[in-house]
Amino acid sequence: MATKLTFSIMTHMASLTTSLEDFLARYAKTKFVDVTLLGLDYATGWQEFVRNAIHGSNLQVSEVGSTWLNDFIAMNALRPFSPAEIRNLGGAGAFAPALWKIGVQADQNVFAIPWMTDIRFVFYRRSQMAKAGLNPETAFSTIEQFDQTLQALQSAGGLPPFVVPTQKSHLTLHNLAMWIWSKGKDFLDENGKRVLLMDPDVQDAMRSYFNLGRFIVPELRNLADEASDAVFAQGRAAVVIAGPWMLNLISNSPDLAADTGIAVAFKQPYMGGSSLVIWKNVIRDRESAELVGSLTGAEYQAAFAHMAGQLPARMDTLQEFPLPDPSYQQVIDFGFKNSRTLPNLPLWGMIEERMVNSIARVWADLLENPEADVDMVMNHHLKLLGNRLNLVLSNS
To answer: Taking residues 25-47, what's their average pLDDT?
Structure first.
């Protein structure tokens, strides 16, 4: 009788689900392991994982987002990978460094193997940049230069200069992180015991980001993630901040792809993504580890990531990843080696969700009243939040 496992993934494009089902059907024939693929969405996935951590259920292997990992490690809900298993996967050096570190604890136990990688890039229209006399090599290198670039694009006429999501979106927090890191700060202090939302440098970074709203024309305001991406993919804006999924979107139009360049903001992009974990006390321990090894192996990494609108997590598969323009490779390689992740601590999932809600309210107020004082709006929504989060952190 074949061994039975359940493998859960988060919501992805339908093409990935179909490809994984085909892969698992072949896997069953060669390994004599029947794997049920279970799709979870982000709205209910957290609750399902918590139930699995506390009570146990039918999950053996799961895809878990990078900012959720430490909560389940802290709950002692995950099974660490053995040194031999890690060697068989190629070791730490085979994977994106920033993403690998999230799953490693102080005692060097490894609880997660990187699978999909999300790096935040600046995508821009080459023709619009040339029209404005801008050099893409330096246009997005500092906060000040980013602002000046959008100002030049606006003055040159042509396409609306900028679009980003302004409805509730985790992408806004990821974008803000890059502005804050460029000031030498983070959302939390070094000890992870204090939120820095009211720190002068953090406030300055957030002010600079929200001030970019003046470059978003009225018809492109109040957009959610997919709508913002679609604007750029349809050739209706000059600059967007987005993830690897944009590579798939622009590939649908050769002319659009030829006119699209990519850059890294401030030389240190945000990195997120997902990893594969094995839940603690699973009965089929060895079979679960072998499944993770197959899913994260070099043979399938590039194909699975491309279908998910992400980048592969393995460094040795980057050259195989299909790109609309070979010139993107250098920027992507740089992003892999120089990226940074959000704070890595057990309470971050809760902190992130509350920040995302408050940041959405900041955008809503500023776009409804463009003449409003940015500092007043930020303080109105973020000061009390910071105080409440600091109280929670001080007691953790």
So the answer is: 87
Euclidean distance between CA atoms 278 and 5, whole angstroms: 11
Q: What CA–CA distance (Å, rounded) separates 248 from 307?
A: 9
Segment 103-135, tens digit of pLDDT: 988 778 999 999 999 999 999 999 999 999 999
Pair (265, 357) in one structural domain: yes
- Owning domain of residue 87: 3-118+272-338
Same domain? For 8 and 156 the reply is no
- 243 and 98 part of one domain: no
Q: Closest Cα partner for 206 from 169, 239, 172, 240?
A: 172
Over 90: is that where the pLDDT of 78 sits?
A: yes
DSSP character string of 87-104:
HHHT-GGGB-HHHHHHTB
* 219 and 139 share one domain: yes
User: Quick check: 39 pLDDT over 70?
Assistant: yes
Predicted pLDDT at 1: 58
Nearest of 309, 265, 278, 269 to residue 116 by alpha carbon: 309
- Backbone angles phi and psi of 97, in degrees to 5: -55, -45
β-sheet bridge partners, residue 250: none
Q: Are residues 250 and 173 in the same domain?
A: yes
Average pLDDT of the residues in 55-61:
84
If one counts the domains in the chain, the total is 2
Bridge partners of 63, per DSSP, are: 276
Whether 164 and 63 map to the same domain: the answer is no
Same domain flag for 245 and 356 = yes
Which pair of tokens denotes residue 72? 């389940």
- The burial of 98, by beta-carbon neighbours within 10 Å (0-12 exposed, 13-18 middle, 19 or more buried), is given as buried
Alpha carbons within 13 A on the beta-carbon side of 162: 24
d(CA 296, CA 142): 35
Question: CATH number of the domain that 68 lies in?
Answer: 3.40.190.10
Domain boundary among 338, 360, 382: 338
Does 218 share its domain with 363?
A: yes
From CA 260, how far away is CA 331, in angstroms rounded? 13
Full-model pTM: 0.92
Give residue 275's pLDDT.
95
Determine how β-strand 61-65 pairs with β-strand 3-10.
Answer: parallel
